[in-house]
Design a protein that fits this description.
The chain is α/β, with parallel strands linked by helices. The chain has seven helices and nine strands, in the order H-E-E-E-E-H-H-E-E-H-E-H-E-H-E-H. Strands 5-8-7-6-9 form a five-stranded mixed barrel, surrounded by four helices. It binds hypoxanthine.
Length: about 270
Amino acid sequence: MNQKLKDAVTKIESITALKPTIAIILGSGLDGITDKMTHLAMISFTDIPHFIKPTTEGHQGAFYFGKLEGKSLLVMKGRYHYYEGYPLKDVTFPISVMAALGIKTLIISNACGAVNQKFNAGEMMIITDHLNLTGTNPLIGPNDQSIGPRFPDASEIYSKRLIEKSNIFAKKLKIRLNQGVYAWWSGPTYETPAEIRMIRTIGADAVGMSTVPEALVASHAGIEILGIACLTNMATGILPQKLTHEEVLVAAKKISIDFGKLVYQLILSI
Ligand code: HPA
């Protein structure tokens, strides 16, 4: 383990004795699951060595360790984004720390725009695959062979096993669950109508500014991943209205109820 990871892990282990194997990243407005947890230990990003100070409104930036129905869990509230200007290695450092802590399963959530016109704002989409439209990758640079291979396989970044489980639980809970491809857009500008037409044409069903770098790093470290995209809005140009971050946060809050129910069932079953 490299020194930066060691520093972060040592600090975390000095605060909590819990050793979760499941982690979840909560996107904008999707918090709530921590209310159901016991034995909570909150560690702010600012208190973990080598974590950067987050800037995005609606992202608190902390690791929450706790138990959900007796199951140890690491909840990451808030995240770093590429558009904040940080190197991708810093954006994804929390994921590298998760791997170093022994996380084996990671649920990554986000707020994003629906590109597929069969979907509706307010629904969720399980990510079956992704398109990286940024031309960059957090794994560029020297490879740590002790974490994963130089040229990682990407044929099943999003676990078929967990996708199947999600569909079963969504049916039981009577929650409409879409499936599709998530495109990673650097942001911070939302897409233009022409960009959305392009993104649809090349095969994406949803678009957002996160998740993919985290999934690439987690997958490299051998972590099983489930991606849950919360469709807070129809992508640009589909409806005759402008898009604001405030509207995205309000919509995410509404989706968070169904999201919480689904995630709760999933965590208990993993
Ligand atoms: N595009 C990109 N990112 C987003 C969107 C969107 O429409 N909605 C929420 N995050």
